[in-house]
Structures are given as C-alpha cells and as structure tokens.
Amino acid sequence: MSVPISACPACDAAPLAEEQAGKGYRGNGAEAQRLMLSLPQIYCAACISGVERGLATRPGVRSARVNLTLKRATVEADPDVEAQDLADYLTGIGFEAYELDGVALSATETDRKGRDLLMRLGVAGFAMMNVMLLSVAVWSGATDATRDLFHWISAGIAIPTVAFSSQVFFKSAWSALRVGRLNMDVPISLAILLAVGMSIFEVMNSGEHAYFDAALSLTFFLLAGRYLDYRTRSVARSAAEELSALEVPRAHRLSDAGEEVVPVAELNVGDIVRVVPGARVPVDGVVTTGESELDRSLLTGESLPVPTAPDGSVMTGEVNLTGPLTVRVTAAGRDSTLHRMADLVAIAETARNKYTSLADKAAAVYAPVVHLLALGAFLFWVWYSGGDWRMAMNIAVATLIITCPCALGLAVPAVNTAASGTLFKQGMLLKSATAMERLAEVDHVVFDKTGTLTEGKPEPDDLAAHKADDLSVALALAEGSSHPLAQALTRATRAAGISPARLERVKEIPGKGIVADWQGREVRLGRAEWLGANAVGQTATYLKVGDRHTVAFTFTDALRDGADEAIAALKAQGIAVTLISGDVPAAVADIAGRVGISDWQADTLPEDKAAYVGQLAKAGHKVLMVGDGLNDTAALAAAHVSISPASALEATRVVSDIVLLGSSLAPLGGSVALAKSATRRIKENFAIAAGSNAVAIPIALIGLATPLAAALAMSLSSITVSVNALRLRKS
Fold this sequence. Notes:
The protein is an alpha+beta fold. The protein has 27 helices and 26 strands. Helices cover 52% and strands 16% of the residues.
C-alpha cells in the first residue's frame, strides 16, 4: 500500500503528532484561501462589527476579522470566492472597500491619511480664529447692521470651512445612514450640522446670536482629537504593519540574459537573485554563492549578526551586512515566511476575545441610545424653558457629542495592537487570536528539557570508544528519526566517516525509539527501559543488536540562552514551574538544578506529559506548556496556552499558540506579566470610557456643558484610552 506524502515530514514520521495536528495542518492550505481587503473609511467598533457581520453572510466566507489600526479585513474563504466581489458587497452596504495586494503593502496610505487630517485640522483652526475675532466685536456691543455684517462674514468663512474640514465625519456618517446603519460619526455630524444650521437661521433673521465660532471650534477640537488619536496609534504602530514594511518590492534576478530588476511577485521557485551588502533580502531561499552576516534583529529580536555561507538559509526581511550573496528562491511574495508571519500577527492583533465581544455589544447599543438621549434632552428643555428652542438645541448638541462611544470602541483594539506589537519586538509571535487573553491567566508553566531549556544540539561524548559495526548500525537507525539525540548521532558519525549499515523494515515508535532488522537480527536504538537496559547517569541513547548487551551513546547539551533568566522571572511572579522530560533522572536533575527548578519529572513518555498537563488543568490550574519535540505535541495541545521555539519541528509549531522567534528564552519571562498588564489596561480603558460618560452625560443633560466643552471631553477620553494602551510599550 502506498504511503501518502504530506507537506510535513514530521507528521509522516510520527503518528502521535499527526493525530494531534495533522488534520488542521494539512487541510488549511488546500481548502481555504486568505483574502485581504482595504477599508479606508472605518473608524469605530460599530464599523468592525458591521463589516464582520456583513462578510459572514456571504456564501463561501468562513471567517472575517477586521484590524482597525491597519484599516484592513482578513477573510478566510473558499477558493472560488473573489476578493473584488467581497469589496463590491461591502461598498454596497456602506463600507468603502478595495481588494488589497498583500505583497505591495506599505505605510504610504497611512501617512497620506495623517497628512490629510492635519490639513483639515489646520484649515479649521485658521477659520476658527478669524471667526472668533469677528465674534469679539459682536460680544463687545455691535448691533443692527454692523452685527449682521459680521455674522454674514462669519458665515462666509464658516460654511465652506465646515464643508471641507468636516468631510471626515460627514462621509463616514453618510456611508452608514444610506444603508440604514448608525455609527459614531452620525451624532458628531448631526451636532456640527445643527450648530451651523442654527447659526444660518439666526443670521437670516437678524438674530442677536450666531454659533459659527462654536461650530468651527467643535470641528477643530473633534479633528484635533482624531488626529492625536491617529498619532498615538502610529506610535503604537502594529507589528503586522512593521513586518509588511520589511517586504522588498523588487529583486535583482540573475539569468542567462544577465541581471534584471523585477517585482518580487514575478519571481518563481528556483530563480537566482543577487543581494548586495546593506540590502534587505527580498525572498526566502538558500545561499548558492558568497559569505556574509545577516541582521535578523527586526524578525527575531536578537541583536547579534548571524553568519551565512553556501547552503545556508535566508529569510525575507533580513539585512545582508558584509558580503554579496546569490540566493536560490524557495518562496517569495505571499508564500514567504515574512508574509505568513505578518498574517499571523495581524490575526493576533484583531483578537476576538471576551473583552472585544463586550465592547462590540456596548457600542451596538450606544448608537441608538445617543440619539434618543439627545432627542429627549431637546424635548424636555423646550418644555421646561417655555419654548426656548435655542437653549434646548445647544443641550441636545452637547449630549450628542459627549455620549459618542469613541473611547469604548478604542478600548480593546488599542491594547491588542500595543501588546502584540511589544511581544513581537521581544521575539514572540502570537499565532492564536486568544493567546494573549489565555497567557494572562497562566499560573503554572511546564517546560520540556531537550531543545527547550537546552539548546537541543547535544554532542556525543566519545565515538572512538565504540565498535565500527555498532556505529554503522546506530547511524542507519538514527537517520530514520527526527529526535534531537538521533540527529546529533547522525551528524557526528557521518563527520567521523562512518557509513550506515543496510537495514530492513525500519520503524519509529514515538517516545521510545527506532527498530529494524540487520543481518537477520533485530536492532533497536532508543530509550533504556524500552531496550531493557540499565540507564547511565546522563543523557544517552542506547543501541541493542540482537541478544547482545546494550551499548550507551552519551551526550552533553548546553543550556539555552536566557533559560535561567526566564525561570527566575516566572518564579518572581509567583508562577509554579515544572520540568518534565523523557530523559534519565540524573540528566534531568542536573538541568533542573542549574536553572533553579525544584519540581521535575524524568523518564516520562509523551502520553505521560499530556496526562500531567491534564491533571494540572483538572486541579484548576492554567498551564503554559513550553516544548519543541514530537513527544511534546500532545502536552502542547492539552495546555491552556502553549509556546514552542522557532527551532521546533513544524508539527510542533502548528499546535503551539505562540512561537519564540529567537534562540533566547529570556522574553518568555516577561510575556506572562505583559499579558496580565494588557488585561489590566483593557479593564482600565473600559473604566475610563464608562467613567467619563457617567460623569459627562448628566452634566450635558442638565445644560452645564456647551457643545465645545463636550467636544473637548469626548476627545480627551479617546486620547486617554490610546495613551493608556501605549504604556504597554514600556513594559
């Protein structure tokens, strides 16, 4: 019977890993496509929920997530779904949308929007100051024709200024209203139009009061609040946007015809590209000629350059430092590691957790409540004041503005963006949308040993002490396993010039070892208890040939950088730490003592690790599992949240919620504290949004807040929420 070949060799080699991760890993690439849509006009939580609900109704759409910071939607859909069809649909329901080419993403559009906001803000400010100067004359006692003249001049300045500067609010509000929907810009636009409309009415009837200065001040301060929010969000520039900015649009392709500059999207697997010193690597690939050093600091958080030479791997976004390289392309554009990494980060930044759902529900209720409150205030004050509709209208306008839930809409996205970006810069890639929320709940961390707390590059101690036949058989068996000890033995014996023996019926037993037939005898390489041997007092794998005695191959392994620092940080936070390994007690005890772990277990099988994690969960603990091998896959899947190093097998990384990009474990120590801090920031933001409204709404309703004061209060609460989220960047 033929054996199917998958994209994940580890899954073919290990049934346990395939059982835990295979279905989702194998199916996603072939069964679904990821589409990107640009949403330039979205601004609030109501927009997010409206877009996501709308896309969810489209045939073939499996899921949709909106990133407010990037103004972008990521859609998982069937292969026959066209991005342009989804964009046309969203535009039709009031959300301007465009198909987005992920390869061409950059910060240019974001910068343009910032300049546009600043220009409109400047025009509003200039007009506001001039109208206020004219208003001084009216307030000083100008009457009759002089007062009317100043009012008409103010109208001539204010009306075109409002029409230009307030387009930001008007366009968003109209897009919502024309499809029967409300968003946060509807009450803002209504307030501005009411102030201008009241002023025009007064001027046409030679009234004593006009409110053009208030209308312009309102526009100015609302734009100021939006621009300051834009700036704070730019400071908290998302990790996804930073990754996108690392993508190189063009590459120098080498061919028989010479060198040509081509778009990266036109490159094919197997093409050869040249990367000069100082340039960013445009593709994933393998070095064919040249030696150099690579700066990976923006991708892994590691500051030291990494040397590379022929047959070395390079990744999109790395900087070539010292020498020219030619690289054979293995992936480019949408298929590159950098692009997939950016997609994962973007998903993490749009996390759909319990706080997001709470904010969405509150924002959905807020929009109609805002208008009902304003209408109620207007009717009450018209009745109470004996028909003074001017005063009633001012109170209604102030109520419309001050109750706008902008701060509530920013409460969760601002924190998610800042937190996931900070973690990424520290070298941790969030793969799951809820990983941050679950990481904040962790109270017990379980570490694997080999490849996790240690470097996973063990070296055999003394090959010369073993017989040639034993080395030859051990090499042949080790070549059939992905276990770190087997791989280390393979490298060392091949380097020593040993040739592998001819084996038959080679089979790997997950968590135990490799078995095969050699010259009519059964041969095994693996754990001591599986071979019925006495374990030595250090890390080792064992060879048994037929009925002969067992031979031990011993190894030494260095601690992974930052391991002791990470464990000390976790323990300082009151988090329990356990080391669990399949290695012998003496080897596990040695590593545990070196990193300060008192609770450790040795001689554990994969199912034992998963069972231990399950027992902790049943006891009420929230477990973080950190592991890298096939024998850790079941435990990683069973944990509340899981982390694997970038050096882990692909099947292991598929199961994990978070990938540690660099070689150091140091960032792990602060990750739980940062996640807990993010949760606190979200709760604080909810409190800021709710508290400001609880204080401001009664003040507006009883007539103690002017529209201008309301605009200042609303802008201040939104900016406070964004600034509070930025505190995570200093964590």
